[in-house]
């Protein structure tokens, strides 16, 4: 009973994170910096704090470097408030929990994980599509509980959720879960109409991954024809829908790329944004080396965007604290040491173990998509990016040969 409750609470945190995006992540007690998805996430781990079949080496490999890095930075940090410092350390804190996530997922049927991902992504598609079409608008509601506006837009995150939706709504033979082509098409259309090019790229990658998986699995002549029909339907539906709506949605990702519409101002604005962000990243990298902070970084709490001068190439708002590229921000804040620790820990799980094919495919593709969007936006720096990322790592860590492993 305790095992099932802990995994249910963990899956609920993922459903809320994927289903409601930024505004869902800010539900809780904003004035105290305590949020519902974090409570559920930590609560699920505490409920499952029991001996497990996970290899002790896995726990040590994650716990030692992460805890030491976090401790060193907290002891040496002298800039910003303690809350801001902890906020900047969130990606490492979530990595610290990866073995605990794996422990919580022990014995969980892989079908439950897929169903949770499907529920979360379809919820996000439902409300965000209405926002895209103009039927819903963000509004303030009980700010003491909802730290962000209800239905607040974050299109890079929305595109990422659509992409994970495309993966999770594909077929999974071992679990006897069929592909839902209509839902996948809806995700692809929404991906073209939302305003983030990073989101559009992730949707394109996810569609390719699904088609390649079906090709590898070999569905025969009927399966081949089905794929052709799917591609043709997706293309026709996407172009037709976007063409009809482009006059109402000049800020869509396809319009910003110049694929639809002829609004030169929109295209020029998108190009200027891309160039500005590129300049900001270059400036931050140069500044890190100039200040001789390349090994240890400026640490948590440091205002790396404003202090480096990169802020003038971004929005100019004081609350912008990331350069819209995860690895650049990671390097500036934690240096070569922190970047190496983070990269090695992720690589150890993604490529260092053998997994059942479908768990590996879903986990690795999802992690790749999160990193793609994080290279063009601010995703990994926030709980709504770090939590799903760590969840997929934990899913991959579960030993497929364990009698209580995922999908068994």
Attribute tags:
408 residues, mainly alpha, two-stranded antiparallel sheet, 17 helices, 66% helix, globular
Structure description:
Helix content is 66%, strand content 1%. The chain is built from 17 helices and two strands. The chain has helices spanning 2-25, 36-47, 56-76, 82-88, 90-96, 98-105, 110-132, 155-168, 181-193, 197-217, 220-245, 253-256, 264-290, 304-308, 326-351, 357-374, 383-397, and strands spanning 28-29, 34-35. It has a two-stranded antiparallel ribbon. Helix 3 (56-76) packs antiparallel against helix 15, helix 8 packs antiparallel against helix 9 and helix 9 (181-193) packs antiparallel against helix 10 (197-217). The radius of gyration is 21 Å and the shape is globular. The chain starts with a helix and ends in an 11-residue tail after the last helix.
Brief sketch in words of this structure:
Helix content is 66%, strand content 1%. It contains 17 helices and 2 strands. Strand 1 (28-29) and strand 2 (34-35) form a beta hairpin.
Return the average pLDDT rounded to an integer. 79
Largest sheet: 2 strands, antiparallel
Structural class: mainly alpha
Radius of gyration: 21 Å
Portion of residues in beta strands equals under 5%
Total count of helical runs of at least 4 residues: 17
Reading the helices and strands in chain order gives HEEHHHHHHHHHHHHHHHH
State the helical fraction: 55-70%
